[in-house]
Predict the structure of DUF1853 domain-containing protein.
Amino acid sequence: MNQKKYDSIQHDLDKSQSLRDLHWAITSASLISDSSQDPGRWEPPDLSLINEQELMDFLVPYSRFRVGQYFEGLILYWLERIRRLKIVAQNQQLFVENQTVGEIDFLFEDETGELTHWETAVKYYLHYPAENTTGSHFIGPNAKDNFEKKCRRLLEYQLPLSETHFPEVVRRVAFVKGIIFFNPHLPASTPLPERMSPAHLKGVWLYFSELDWLKTQYSDTVYQIREKPDWLSPAVRDSCIEKLLTFSELKRALDVHFQEGDRPLMISILKVVETDCREIKRLFVVAENWPEQS
């Protein structure tokens, strides 16, 4: 990509949260490496051709609290409005003898006319190398979730549903994006799970008691607490004022938060360059009892 084209894309991304999220949903690295998944990557859409207001209006029903629902809205817009594909079914419940047995995320005809079944997800897992009650070393912020459990659900249950209910499906794909977080104070030698892509996006996680580590690693940085569903694309701010915290302000906010509960928080670390702020790392901060939360 030439520099002029790159600068144009970057300008479009900087000015629009919804465009950044759409671009990230399409182009970010897959979390899953599996034979059932699409082996290729897609060219990002020409952002200059996207009506930003139309995109924002389209996403309104999906832009509430749930990250996965918002991600699905972005994927639907991409398939339906950009790739102009025929959507055969979306979030369609499946029944056997009047009992719900599952739901299909997306059923569509691709550019070649082949009927394709996609199950979509956006997931975040923290690497925890010690033995623990979850049975996994890649655990969700909510410790009831883990990478292996999600893969089994997607690849061994959800995708095979179309084999029975839509046998004409040609391709079945687990379209999964997200980030794996590593703690700098814990060994990172645990082998990756078989189905995890080695090209996955990486972040950092810390216990609240380890927060001062940030001061030893980063300078000229500010912080943004990311609230759902704003967990997707890297944070960008033209002004370093609104919603951005100094380290001291972040520490005070987290101290209050963890006195009241143990919900992990996602945070963007942004580098300050003159009047521009741009995310350089994604962070999760967890309570001292994670992952053995009550």
User: Anything to note?
Assistant: DSSP finds eight helices and ten strands in the chain.
